[in-house]
Predict the structure.
Amino acid sequence: MKKTRADALRTRRQILNAALKVFGLKGYAATTLNDIARQAGLTRGAIYWHFENKRKLYEALLKDYYRTIEEKIKTEITSSKTPLIQLKDGIFKLLNFFSDHQDYRTIEEALLGSPQVQQELAGVLDKQKQLFGQIYVQTRALIKAAIDNGEIRKGVDPDIAASAIISYVNGIKLTRLHNPLSLNNMVDQLIDLMFKGMEKGIDPR
Amino acid sequence: MKKTRADALRTRRQILNAALKVFGLKGYAATTLNDIARQAGLTRGAIYWHFENKRKLYEALLKDYYRTIEEKIKTEITSSKTPLIQLKDGIFKLLNFFSDHQDYRTIEEALLGSPQVQQELAGVLDKQKQLFGQIYVQTRALIKAAIDNGEIRKGVDPDIAASAIISYVNGIKLTRLHNPLSLNNMVDQLIDLMFKGMEKGIDPR
DNA sequence: ATGCAAACATACACGAATGTATGTTTGCAT
DNA sequence: ATGCAAACATACATTCGTGTATGTTTGCAT
């Protein structure tokens, strides 16, 4: 039952996809390697050949996730529009990414949700904090640029605004995790509403 | 080793408190009844006498939580201030409640985080949706009242604003769950920033 | 052709957690 | 006083998941 190298990589993918699906349904702690194996149409033997254990398998999933997200963010940011447009676009792309790729729900839940799970996965925590910090820095930089650019009024504190935006986006993600359809056509209006508190050219009366 | 009725109720409390603490540290799936028993200075026998099993114990915790929150909300809302003040006050009280009562972190995580865990606890899901719906309705009503009152400008859609506020508050909760100290002195400014997008009397320029 | 190792499947050993059965103490009604 | 049941602790059986050891097939280098 030896397969070619390409075949092996394909079954590795199968395992990762199956893990993504099952983790999404039952959560990290509740899913057994047997669940994943059955979902993948394999046995636990295959899993243990490709990964050390359940934790390493999960970490591999996270690695994938981080790479994808980081690429997303970088390509979105390097656009040539104005800072405020860049920021808004980035948020939209990010939010749409999660509604499109339902499979990544699992990971998002794990990252948004319980910090306890990540205690077990301490190794990945650094990477996560690093990514979060990176997002924070980029967001604040864009806000500063937008202030200098005159798109956001001078009185806005970049730190507070960045924290607000990140919390807000995570809150929206969370709402959609619990009820994927709830905010479907609202997202752009939700973002606009938040930015109305910061933008310059708008007279709220 | 029979105790008086009052004593029994006290040990029941001990168990609930211990469960709250341990669930908060390790998460629902990862905590064993032995952990809880040890934390309470008892044995699993005591737990099984007071509760059917782990799930029912957790549900009892949720019941407690819901009662507490519902009371909080009701007493905060029936204040006599203006609608917008009521809304802001309610949000502050809610956010402060969670930073004060660290023990309820667990429950909050379970409710905010992974929907998967609640599949196992299907019975409580209804109660949760009901509570969430209730919060949504009350929020929207207060926004409408604030519009009629002239505190929020006419152009704001109450549905969108309510969704925005709830997502925002949940996002802030989430951020503080992951890093309890991060937004410590910002919260009021965060809320203000959001409301600046809605309020009437403010000239953003 | 053939021998080795990759790529799994199967089998087994072990611990951990659950649920239940049973034992033990003691408050309280009679 | 005494018998019953509340309020637990202790002991045991059973299940379940993990990790590992072993078996099996087969692509590929020689």
Summary: Residues 1-3, 5, 7-8, 11, 42-46, 48-50 of chain A lie near DNA strand C (CB under 10 Å from a C1').
